[in-house]
Design brief:
By secondary structure, the chain is of the alpha/beta class. The protein has a single domain, classed as LarA, N-terminal domain (Rossmann fold), CATH 3.40.50. The protein contains eleven helices and eleven strands. Strands 1, 2, 3, 4, 7, 8, 9, 10 and 11 form a nine-stranded mixed β-sheet that branches. Helix 9 crosses helix 11. The protein is globular, with a radius of gyration of 18 Å. The N terminus is likely disordered.
Length: 316
């Protein structure tokens, strides 16, 4: 991060509050009783929506995202006037939204609008895909949706990645995209998905999209690598898209049978709480996942998301 961003981190953190992860990482004071909850889970409770009703599904995703953010105090707790914000979706695969290979485009577009309404100067959206960016950006629907919402779409230039000191337990340094870490706020916005190697790809693994180099080498020690990059990124806001989730053959299934509708969006500044919630959505126990255990041991958050007393919203 730039000097400016690192200096502002504690300012942002204090303003955000409500995040046990940040309290543990930065030694922040206990939160006041009137502080909004550290986590919100918005679930659709309205009339069932058919998979083919794209208009109603889009409206639902917007409502879920808006109300989840509002429940934790609104985007204004995270974004101040003049901020440059980077929204980091999972935009890694040449898959349309109905196959749940990438973050829901309506969730991303809603975040863009909320940031701009909160006073952000610029909202950038970009990822380092696993396939050609032109295909992933377009097929995912995220490029068009985010651009229409007012975002600047960034295609990451492989020549601009530069080695940065991660000072991690496993990774002392790695190639990171400077334009991302130099922004005032990075919003981590993954989709909940099955993964053939790690069983789940959620908030922490989504940070693999901010780095370059031989990322496949991370799978040799993935819990340690993800813990190192997460600590470096200093999560301030994570939004987990579970409108659709991918339950099998991840991270890029081509079968609708692998997709399940959860009609849910969850928000927290505690990345590990959302990670654990996502693991449960995928039908597993958080304590059984090495990534969760490693991050918890490093003090990156609270793996017991229920201990945060998340506000659960029935959205109609």
């Amino acid at each position: 991060m730039s000097h400016h961003s690192r200096r502002d981190f504690l300012t942002h953190s204090a303003r955000i509050g409500g995040a046990l992860a940040l309290a543990q990482m930065g030694g922040l004071a206990p939160f006041a009783a009137e502080t909004p909850p550290a986590m919100a889970i918005a679930k659709w409770a309205g009339d069932p929506i058919a998979d083919a009703d794209s208009t109603a599904l889009a409206s639902m995703a917007v409502k879920l995202t808006e109300q989840a953010l509002e429940a934790v105090g609104g985007m204004g707790r995270f974004v101040k006037k003049g901020d440059v914000v980077w929204i980091k979706p999972n935009m890694a695969w040449d898959r349309p939204p109905e196959l749940a290979g990438n973050t829901n485009p309506d969730v991303v577009a809603t975040l863009v609008k909320l940031c701009l309404n909160a006073g952000a100067k610029t909202v950038k959206v970009g990822d380092n895909p696993c396939v050609a960016a032109q295909k992933a950006y377009a097929t995912s629907g995220i490029e068009a949706a985010a651009k229409n919402a007012g975002a600047e779409i960034i295609y990451l230039d492989e020549n601009r990645f530069r080695k940065m000191a991660l000072n991690g337990e496993y990774l002392s340094e790695w190639e990171v995209y400077p334009e991302i870490v130099e922004t005032d706020l990075v919003i981590n916005c993954p989709i909940a998905k099955h993964h053939g190697i790690t069983q789940a790809t959620l908030c922490m693994k989504n940070y693999m999209g901010v780095v370059g180099g031989r990322r496949n080498a991370w799978h040799q020690a993935l819990p340690a690598c993800l813990t190192d990059i997460t600590r470096f990124m200093k999560p301030q806001l994570c939004v987990l898209d579970a409108v659709r989730i991918l339950t099998g053959n991840g991270p890029q299934s081509s079968q609708l049978e692998d997709v399940a509708r959860k009609d849910t969006v969850a928000v927290s500044a505690d990345i590990l709480a959302l990670e654990s919630f996502g693991v449960e959505l995928l039908g597993d126990r958080p304590e059984a996942r090495d990534i969760v255990a490693k991050a918890a041991a490093a003090g990156l958050g609270n793996p017991d998301y229920k201990a945060l007393n998340p506000r659960e919203l029935a959205v109609t």
